[in-house]
Amino acid sequence: MAKVPGLAKAFAGCLRVVEMDNWDCDLLDLVEQAHLTFKGKSDGGTAFGALKGFLDVRYGTRDGSACAEFSWEGHDENDPVCGRGWAMIGTAGRLVGHFYIHNGDDSAFACERG
Description:
2 helices; 8 strands; Lipocalin; mainly beta; eight-stranded antiparallel β-barrel; globular
């Protein structure tokens, strides 16, 4: 089993998606609590609205800050979807980033622990 990189530890866990620019708060928790989860050296998951997906994560740095870049695939209302995104540790312990749906919408987001 490969060792979990140090940068991955900064992101590890389940973070609650608290806001997205292109979807209002009422939609976020439509099916389950909106979240972004990072685990292990490259795994994770996400859910918001009717979308649920699995992440393939790579950790590194962007503009001198720790960054998690990911591709994802899953389902939105039973339709297969995929995309990409990134997240950085922002101010006050928030995670901020951008989520892209291939051939679809995209949105900035913010997550909080707890």
